[in-house]
Specification:
By secondary structure, the chain is of the alpha/beta class. The protein has 13 helices and twelve strands. The chain has helices at about 25-30, 85-95, 105-115, 120-130, 135-145, 145-170, 180-210, 225-235, 275-290, 345-360, 370-390, 395-415, 420-425; strands at about 5-10, 15-25, 45-50, 55-65, 75-80, 100, 215-220, 250-255, 260-265, 295-300, 315-320, 335. It has a six-stranded mixed beta sheet with strand order 3-4-5-2-1-6. Strands 8-9-7-10-11-12 form a six-stranded mixed beta sheet, with helices on both faces. Helix 7 (about 180-210) packs antiparallel against helix 11 (about 370-390) and helix 11 (about 370-390) runs antiparallel to helix 12. The structure holds guanosine-5'-diphosphate and magnesium ion.
Length: about 425
Amino acid sequence: MLDTIFALATAQGKAGVSVIRISGPKSHAALGMMASVPELRKASVRKLYWDDVLLDEALVIAFGEGASFTGEESVELHVHGSRATINAILNVLIAIPGLRPAEAGEFTRRALENGMLDLTQVEGLADLIDAETEAQRIQSLRVLSGAIGKKVDAWRQKIIRAGALLEATIDFADEDIPVDVMPEVKDLLSELIVDFEAEISGVKMAEQIREGFEVAIVGRPNVGKSTLLNALSGRKAALTSEIAGTTRDVIEVRMDIDGLAVTFLDTAGIRETGDQLEAMGVNLAIERANAADLRVFLTENGDRIDEVEFFDEDITALGKLDSFSGDVEFQADHRISGLTGEGIGALLSNISSILQQRISGAGLLTRERHRVAIQNGLIALRLASDEVFNVVPTVELAAEELRSASQHLELLLGEVGVETLLGEIFSSFCIGK
Ligand code: GDP
Ligand code: MG
């Protein structure tokens, strides 16, 4: 029999309420040692006692087997969120035979093992717990709710149907087949291939939502890059000075821009320099700027920065607008002043719309692991399709490829081959999840 496990499910530290979760065959019995067990799934207030000592007055919910997060009999104790209360209750639980503290991710692991969640939902849950922006929240919640599983089920129906039609032609090989099934098989395969291709193309975008974007501020020394970073972030993140070569390390400021996670990089001003430390900063600036998702080239005199590649959609900005009087004879997408804040709003909204555009094709699949599974499935479908479209179709081979495509979908949902992945996925979970 499995151990009954328990852990604090809410964050460590002081809080109004903290939730302790207990899951496993002895969870109701454990609650019963402290209070009377309420009706299932009915939140009830209970005084929790141990050896006649009052531990806390808590909101208590008992869940039955098959009807809880883990799929096991389980209990939630919503207790007062003080360290002393939590410690008192955890100390009682640890003393009950058959109960032990949960390992990181163990509740979720049990949910997976009991079929309450598929593997993509587990990943969605991890992402939802980590979500910092609205786009991340929406995306991870969609995955957690089982959207990938639903899509996979629909694909699987089609694969099964195509496979069954092919099997029928094998069984009837020596007889007359009443109808030619090949057109339907061809249609099914073509639809699947189009769907798989579309999903694969959206993974990169979905990953960008999860991982966020990097936007580098690039320019010669003293053009006002650090001042711009401070203006964008609304705080003094970087030192600014009239001394050229002040910034050396890359300074990162993480922001939420209209629901997207964006990290701005303030970098060393790019120039030839004899100062060894500054030169290291310049090299780092070039490297990070080239690798960023978007660059803002800041200038005060129209200088070009050839050391950093200018990509499509990169932005040019004329800085220190407040110090100019009269006309400026060069083109820039934006005119800004980091000092007065002029033009910063427009720059931010331009950055936002460029990045929003880049995630607009995000599909259901959110991870490289998903992409690999679907890519392999696609290869199998294409091979099956080649067989079917042959002048003399090799039906057995096509059916075999369809089985292989199905297996890749099973891998995606974690129905097979899950053991090797679990360690990696659950390592990102904290205790109590
Ligand atoms: P960086 O080397 O590109 O990071 O430039 P800094 O942000 O350190 O600024 C260099 C100098 O230019 C400092 O003295 C800033 O006060 C000044 N500066 C920066 N932005 C502006 C601006 O928008 N207007 C004016 N008038 N001065 C600025
Ligand atoms: Mg600087």
